[in-house]
Specification:
The chain is an alpha/beta fold. The chain is built from 14 helices and nine strands. An eight-stranded parallel beta barrel has the order 1-2-3-4-5-6-8-9, surrounded by five helices. Helix 13 links the parallel strand 8 and strand 9. The protein binds ligand G3I. Ligand G3I binds next to loops.
């Protein structure tokens, strides 16, 4: 609130080229600068999204679907460009606990094993959501629903304990309309009340104390929108009362004309509450230079705020995007790099 977006950049780490110059300068005093300069040219830019993001300690991830892992170009592009992953559907409730108490991790494990073999960060998505919920859940009594919630969190987080960088503990709990703070009506609110979010976060902290716990939502990109204010107030309240929460995920499903002018200020206002911010499901409908400009702005907004720790795009290629008609991703249907790709890479560098 009242945050100066420009001041958020004050803590930004020096760019890689600047750091290399500083190192070269220091070593020059020791008489070794000539050899070093030949191997690490000052101002050299990283050639992939992951490497470029890593220069400032951030990750650049993609949502991956296990069902596409037989597409060798898909996997090759993932491995080459990205250093983080979010399973697109494989960790959701309908996939992991299709019937009560019976857990399945085969598809999610496929993604996790591959990511681990490449040293990637893994975001867990998602533990508590009103969507992709098997029908048995909505038939439970209040008491059973509460124990099913905790049991689900314990089993899924337990299975991946120590392997997940951040979990989307609760996804999309806030309503799109209504007064600030209005939650979406769901089986969760109807049977457990608004406190279900807090219950989920407390259970999650106990299940894997080392994973970062995030609240994740869409349409919370505008700093002043009612939905954003509701999430902001919840995070502030959780921090004040010691309810465990470590991060806010801005899904950021956007269009080239819809990146809010206060997007960076929004990231900064959440960060000022003492949580990390991650852009978790980025895709921007559009084309050409306008799409590229929108991607550049989003990228720069994250890199300007020290606690914005990484960006995940919601897919690799337009051909598999959930919004295929919008062509919202960084690679076209033939895995060619789009203008948006170059804009992101340049912004990260
Ligand atoms: O698995 C079945 C398959 O067996 C069947 O043949 C096929 C026929 O349609 O459907 C398959 O399931 C689909 C699933 O994706 C896997 O492809 C579902 O119908 C489809 O609804 C589901 O869509 C996913 C959507 O979440 C569901 O809400 C998208 O892939 C996924 O990208 C999308 O991701 C969400 C985030 O989790 C939360 N934020 C919004 C985002 C976009 O909607």
């Amino acid at each position: 609130m009242g945050e100066n977006p420009l001041s958020a950049g004050g803590g930004r780490r020096p760019r890689a080229g600047t750091r290399r110059l500083l190192v070269a300068g220091a070593l020059g005093a020791l008489g070794t600068v000539t050899a070093l300069a030949a191997s690490v040219p000052a101002g050299a830019a990283a050639g992939t999204l992951g490497a470029a993001a890593a220069q400032s300690g951030r990750y650049y991830g993609a949502a991956i679907a296990a069902g596409h892992m037989n597409d060798s170009t898909y996997v090759a592009t993932w491995d080459r460009e990205f250093n983080a992953v979010t399973p697109e559907n494989e960790m959701k409730w309908d996939a992991t606990e299709p019937s009560r108490g019976s857990f399945r991790f085969t598809s999610a494990d496929q993604i996790v094993s591959h990511a681990q073999s490449k040293g990637m960060k893994i975001r867990g998505h998602t533990l508590v959501w009103h969507n992709q919920l098997p029908s048995w859940v909505s038939g439970l009594s209040t008491t059973d629903l509460r124990s099913a919630l905790v049991n689900h969190i314990n089993n899924v987080m337990g299975h991946y304990k120590g392997k997940i960088y951040a979990w989307d503990v609760v996804n999309e709990a806030f309503a799109d309309g209504g007064a600030v703070g209005t939650l979406r009506s769901s089986v969760w609110t109807q049977k457990l009340g608004n406190g279900f979010i807090e219950e989920a976060f407390r259970a999650a902290r106990a299940a894997d104390p080392n994973a970062k716990l995030c609240y994740n939502d869409y349409n919370i990109d505008d700093a002043n929108a009612n939905k954003t204010r509701g999430v902001y107030n919840m995070v502030k309240d959780f921090k004040a009362r010691g309810v465990p929460i470590d991060c806010v995920g801005l899904q950021s499903h956007l269009s080239q004309g819809s990146v809010p002018s206060n997007y960076q200020q929004n990231i900064a206002q959440f960060a000022a509450l003492g949580v990390d911010v991650q852009i978790t499901e980025l895709d921007i409908g559009g084309s050409g230079s306008a799409q590229a400009d929108a991607y550049r702005r989003v990228t720069q907004a994250c890199t300007a705020v020290p606690r914005c720790t990484g960006i995940t795009v919601w897919g690799i290629t337009d051909k598999y995007s959930w919004r295929s008609g919008d062509n919202p991703l960084l690679f076209d249907g033939n895995y060619n790099k789009k203008q948006a790709y170059t804009a992101v890479l340049d912004a990260l560098n």
